[in-house]
Amino acid sequence: MKKLGRNKILILGVVLGGIGGYFYWKEIGCITGNCPLKSKWQRMVPYGMFTGYIISDLIQSYWKRFKRKGEIPTR
Q1: Does the record bear Transmembrane helix in its keywords (predicted)?
Q2: What pLDDT shows up at residue 74?
Q3: CB 25 within 8 A of CB 46
Q4: What is the value of pTM for the model shown?
Q5: Residue 45 lies in a domain
Q6: pLDDT of 29
Q7: Digits of tens for pLDDT over the chain (75 positions)?
Q8: Can you tell me the distance from the alpha carbon of 59 to that of 19, in angstroms, rounded to the nearest whole number?
Q9: 27 occurs within a structural domain
Q10: Do residues 20 and 54 touch, judged by C-beta distance below 8 A?
Q11: Is residue 17, in this structure, part of any structural domain at all?
Q12: Residue 10 is inside which H or E element, if any?
């Protein structure tokens, strides 16, 4: 259960990425069907999940690095 708590940002990123991939396919996706990636939702949702994982992993590592130093970046 501790692993789930530590990885909640990654899980949230994967879920939001999957939802984003579905809506990208629904609203912007390929109309003609000739686009190999955007023509089917079964391909676009995992691609969105992967993208969400990469972005949330970057955010999590950035946050941990500054939290470890004791300073949260502000503008």
Answers
A1: yes
A2: 62
A3: no
A4: 0.76
A5: yes
A6: 79
A7: 666 677 888 999 999 999 999 998 888 877 777 777 777 888 899 999 999 999 999 988 888 877 776 666 665
A8: 19
A9: no
A10: no
A11: no
A12: helix 8-27
> In three state form, how does the secondary structure of 33-69 look?
CCCCCCCCHHHHHHHHHHHHHHHHHHHHHHHHHHHHH
Which among 41, 43, 51 is positioned nearest to 15, based on CA atoms?
A: 51
What one-letter code names the amino acid at 25?
W
User: What pLDDT was estimated at residue 55?
Assistant: 95
Q: Which two tokens stand for residue 59?
A: 């955010």
In this prediction, residue 63 carries a pLDDT of: 80
Is 29 in contact with 20 (CB distance < 8 Å)? no
- In which domain, by residue range, is 60 found? 37-65
Q: Which of 28, 15, 22 is nearest to 41 (CA)?
A: 22
Q: Is position 29 within any domain?
A: no
**Would you say 18 and 48 are in contact if contact means Cβ atoms under 8 Å apart?**
yes
